[in-house]
Design brief:
By secondary structure, the chain is mostly helical. It is built from ten helices and no strands. It is globular.
Length: 210
């Protein structure tokens, strides 16, 4: 658990893919200037997700709070690109603060665009639970046991140092989305179906040296 009691409406990779395919197929004539926020059908926190995963895999899944530096150890152990985790820490903090539940948090964008409702988190969990890596075989259990006990011996990522080494831009006054007044106005308009901000959207223009 990296997000405390924060809730989000998790959307499956498959539903995201179907939504993106529709946008690409129908093209900019229909969708240019619009903003879409695909979500799953239900707001869930990490404990509720763990309870659903418990049902899907058929054995208890115990949720525990994990600091981001511990996730950094696991990421290095599993060969995950640190860029993904460096971004994730801000995402998780936003979720803690209620950003993804703001103004209801659930949309029907997937159904509106694809004609099929977004699948539930349980449906997604059951699909992944049926894959070979998730089955309760002796080999899988042994690998999990060894990996778990080796984790403390891995050196985690120093995310701030990693960001600085790549000269990532840092805002003068960084803030989370939920703390930004303009974001709250635009997000509320999006969730409520109005678009007072659309007139401010302009195509990006680039030039040599930009």
């Amino acid at each position: 658990m990296l997000s405390g009691d924060g809730r989000a409406a998790p959307v499956s990779n498959e539903d995201m893919g179907r939504t993106a395919a529709v946008l690409l197929a129908e093209g900019p004539d229909k969708h240019a200037g619009n903003r879409y926020r695909p979500t799953g059908p239900q707001l869930l926190n990490a404990r509720e997700m763990a309870a659903i995963v418990t049902k899907a895999v058929g054995h208890p899944v115990l949720p525990i709070n994990m600091p981001i530096w511990m996730l950094g150890k696991v990421a290095r152990q599993q060969g995950i690109d640190p860029y993904q985790i460096s971004c994730l820490r801000y995402y998780m903090e936003d979720m803690k603060r209620g950003t993804f539940a703001f103004e209801g948090g659930v949309t029907n964008v997937v159904e509106e665009l694809t004609g099929t409702p977004a699948e539930s988190f349980e449906t997604t969990a059951r699909r992944y639970a049926a894959l070979p890596f998730a089955r309760q075989t002796l080999g899988n259990r042994l690998n999990a046991f060894v990996s778990f006990n080796m984790t403390p011996f891995y050196r985690g990522y120093n995310f701030d140092k990693w960001d600085r080494a790549r000269d990532f831009p840092v805002p003068l006054k960084p803030s989370l989305s939920i703390d930004d007044e303009q974001w709250r106005i635009e997000h509320a308009a999006q969730m409520n179906g109005s678009r007072p901000w659309a007139e401010n959207i302009r195509p990006l223009r680039t030039s040599h040296g930009a």
